Amino acid sequence: MAQRTIAPLARRSTRNLHAPLQRSGILRGFERGYSAIASDLERRACAKGDANSSVCKDVSQKTHVHTFSQNLSRNVQTTTCPEMATYFPNISVLNRSPRNAHWPKIVGDRLSAGYIASHSLNSSSIYMKRSFATDSGLPSHQEIGMPSLSPTMSEGNVAKWKKKEGDKVSAGDVLCEIETDKAIVDMESMEDGYLAKIIHGDGAKEIKVGELIAIMVEDEDAIAKFKDYTPSGQGTANEKASSKETTPAPPPPKEDTPSPVATPKTEKSAASPQSEDRIFASPIARKLAEDHKVPISSIKGTGPNGRIVKADIEDYLASVSKDTPPSAPPTKELDYTDIPLSQIRKVTASRLLLSKQTIPHYYLTVDTCVDKLTELRNRLNALQEASSGKRISVNDFVIKAAALALRKVPQCNSSWTNEYIRQYHNINISVAVQTDKGLFVPVVKDADKKGLSAIGEDVKVLAQKAKENTLKPADYEGGTFTVSNLGGPFGIKQFCAIINPPQSAILAVGSAEKRVIPGALPDQFDVSSLMSVTLSCDHRVIDGAIGAEYLRAFKGYIEDPLTMLL
């Protein structure tokens, strides 16, 4: 009802308006936009079972539309035009002179689909923008942009589309898989409709956040109108690549070549050499010299009257070949393969470079005796095997001890900002996991409150997800402290790790090895298993004494692991 009533009224109301406004084209925009708004509001109200929606009813009033047109033509105040206040909160913009060149643009911007969707329809979708019909004949549709699926994501890749063009989509259906800087995440649809056009297909790379990747429509009949659709200022990934390849290289700058200067003719007597400067040589000697590019003037002839003969040229060539050193063999070019950079590799490189350049690192190393820990671990694993449980690793003890040490020294569970130091109350331990695709750092949440078995189970599940590239944002966000262990898997004795911003510390764990240590008596020596750990600290947040205090607490838990149970 609203669509059949408002559109004719809006068209008739434009006849009474000033000619300058009609020439500006903005009234045609009011007509189309006002009709589309009423139609969309009525459709939504009917879908909800509310045929008497107050908003739809208010828009569909004939007197309101007529008053709207008259008030616009007179440039009246807000209080006399309540309909405009619904869609234009700052109605004072209409009171400007129509002669102002910016007036149509300002009103047009207010009437844009994005503004109406955000202020009138309360759309909650972050990456979907509603667009109304345009002069190009396109029906109303939804533009789906590249979402931001992690705090550090600035661009992403389309790994695989789960829906094809023309497929029906329901709210909650997975549209495609997006490769972020940390994992591959499913992107779900926020509304029902049909997938009309895929702008970036499978494998599209380096798509900026917010850039258009697909078009959705509400009616199946509208799909065909987007078959050849290309967004303005944005081609498909293949078109971009082809344009880069086919773009001709700029022509090289022209060099200024001097124009030839005519040489004045001189008399023949002046140009010809003097008779005493003439070089006498046999024809075969001259031919041999020209073939080997030998300056014949530098050869002394041995023939009659100093004539240069063939033997003179051959002797000269033989002497030159003896004096010339043998040429070096040609160097063999290096054989190599260029490996494309994955998204996780790019982000890891940029963040670690930023960490090293902006965070003042310092390092503290301590040796911890793990004899008691090894003994306790063997006893607990025996119990786990008897009850069909999973074995506990040394890394599980390290994570638990690191978390409990943070509870004792909370200054190390902090991050730096330019205005303050944020100290976290949750102790979430990030665990570095190396995969074929790169380095992932999933998070064990509330590690200080979990038992060794729970920590071990979380680490195994997260490590498997990292290797399968199926981590979700909740699996790698929220870490407050990082543990990197290269000792157990690789046998690295000791190393210094780079802090993972915005955290302020990372613990590098080396391998345990047998060492001879002083015994209880002066001449007595014992053999113990010692493990080296190095704490990398941000000096802006953690002073040296605080870092040493943390390592002392960590060492206490490792050397007496029963205290972790208290």
- In total, the number of strands is 19
Please report the number of helical segments: 19
Give the end-to-end Cα distance, rounded to a whole number of Å.
73 Å
Structural class: alpha+beta
Poorly predicted ranges: 1-29, 50-126, 241-249, 253-275
Q: What characteristic shape results from the CA principal axes?
A: flat
Sheet with most strands: 6 strands, mixed
Quaternary class: single chain
Based on CA atoms alone, the radius of gyration comes out at: 40 Å
Q: How would you write the strand order of the largest sheet?
A: 10-19-18-17-13-16
Strand content: 15-25%
Helix content: 25-40%
Average pLDDT: 76
What does this structure look like?
The protein is α+β, with helices and mostly antiparallel strands and 566 residues long. It has 19 helices and 19 strands. The chain has helices spanning 2-13, 19-24, 26-47, 54-59, 62-74, 82-87, 103-110, 113-119, 237-246, 268-271, 283-291, 310-323, 343-358, 371-386, 394-408, 452-468, 473-476, 487-490, 544-559; strands spanning 128-131, 141-145, 155-161, 168-169, 174-179, 184-188, 193-198, 207-208, 212-217, 361-369, 414-416, 421-423, 429-431, 433-434, 439-440, 443-444, 481-485, 505-518, 525-538. Strands 10-19-18-17-13-16 form a six-stranded mixed β-sheet. A hairpin with a 4-residue loop joins strand 14 and strand 15. The longest helix has 22 residues, at 26-47.
